[in-house]
Records
---
Amino acid sequence: MSRHIPRKRFGQNFLQDPRTIEDIVDAVNPARDDLVVEIGPGLGAITRPLLARLNHLHVVEIDRDIIARLRRTFTATQLTIHEGDALAFDFAALGTPLKIVGNLPYNISTPLLFHLASFGTQVTDMHFMLQKEVVDRMVAEPGTADYGRLSVMLQYRFYMERMLDVPPEAFDPPPKVDSAVVRMIPHPTLPHQAQDEQQLAHIVQVAFAQRRKTLRNNLKGVLDDEGFATLGIDPGIRPENLPVGGFVAICNYLTAQPGGAV
Ligand code: SAM
């Protein structure tokens, strides 16, 4: 087959380091009958070793040239190819329980993570290669500079673990940034349950609108000092110092107020 010219607009950095590929597949550790979907199979660096351990694999790919190559390489019994944008893909339609894997296109990683989080209840686990800086933000603890909207919204639903750091040389072409692999496992029972998850997303967005300002300032018009006092939350702290449970408490307090959502 002729060489595929990597497309920047689809975030195409193909894994080439055998050790990294093996480590990812070991981390996923699929059983033969598992229901697994890979996002962005590309030239098959992870697809091939996954298929060696699976009876069948689903993939979601946007690039038509790559899809044609995949059709020439794998049989339909081995691989079901879903053509299109992972951002719009209904992962729930594949069935449950589902394992999701991908060396993700970095240019859409944040919206893709939010899209994938909405399938939390159908999923056993997810393993993703991402820009290292994004993984830092996902797993960040409160009180650190990396803790923000992404940390709160993902930690609300998932237990997350950094699996390995990956240097640019592991890819062809090498990306300009370091990468890391993260494991996401949905909490069997949410440690803090928001009564209204849309409200939670809204509050977290507003609370972090200006990181260097206090919660009181960011939540002006949303939560008054009486509300902060009832909840036992210091309005003078910055949003990065409030743990996930604090955001959920604010959300549930507001949901319970006459008039409900903000
Ligand atoms: N898995 C391969 C590997 O590890 O070498 C390729 C990884 S490459 C970083 C990202 C892959 O995602 C490419 O195959 C790209 O075409 C595909 N892709 C990019 N945007 C996508 C989207 N919105 N939906 C589905 N696939 C996408």
---
Amino acid sequence: MNILDNISYYLHTGAAKDVAYSVQIAINEGYPAEEILQKGLLHGMDIIGELFQNGDCYVPETIVAARAMNAGLEVLKPLLQKQCIASMGKVVLGTVKGDMHDIGKNLVKLMMESNGLEIIDLGTDVPAEQFVQVAINEQCQVIAMSALLTTSMGAMKEVIKQLDLARVRERFKVMIGGAPVSTAFCEKIGADAYTRDATAAASQALKFCKPEYMR
Ligand code: B1M
């Protein structure tokens, strides 16, 4: 087993300290941060996801694995973040109402911040009205939403409805993402962009914050 296999093994078995330690070793051995993220941490999350889906592990084990993921991310964060001096734009970000999953949302935040964007992170289980109020009050350019449940993704449409009701839809670009979300769903609810992963979300948000995209 190489060090990246160790990371994914420790992650899906929930050994947070070993994950953090192994990530540091991988960094010391010269592995690029993106490779440690993809082949170590995210690979470990894929394994726990499969076990969970097949009924081979349960919610407690999954929570412990999620904590181990966060422990690894903490060590990796400084390497994933580039130094940015000026804010390139402002994004309000959160996981939609009814949904507590935040690992993907936190990755999106990390990647957006490392691209110089200012992020207002509303956390998880965020009501539609809160996305809209904060976007207006904080003069954000982008509203970015994450959903991991087929039962919560409908809440994204509610945010667009609230923007329409407040007659401010044209002021903001709405971005959506998360495992059950797709381009077809994005078109169906009238959002502006669906992106598949955190890196793509960061580049799309950066584009939306450029003057030519301002409405
Ligand atoms: Co949950 N869970 N979970 N869970 N959980 C899933 C999502 C599930 C697919 C597992 C399964 O059955 N196979 C399933 C959903 C089924 C469905 O609706 N289709 C599920 C379920 C059912 C549940 C509960 C209902 C279980 C229960 O209680 N019986 C419950 C719901 C609680 C709630 O939210 N109300 C629940 C609870 C939990 C835990 C608390 C135990 C834990 C969450 C811990 C946490 O987040 N702090 C958990 C976990 C960890 C998972 C799995 C195993 C892993 C999710 C994850 O973090 N992946 C997941 C199975 C899976 O996904 N294979 C599962 C890693 C993360 C980096 O990926 O979040 O997809 P992801 O983010 C990706 C992209 O999607 C994208 O970028 C990231 C990659 O760069 N992305 C965006 C995400 N947001 C984006 C936004 C963007 C752009 C891209 O733009 C704005």
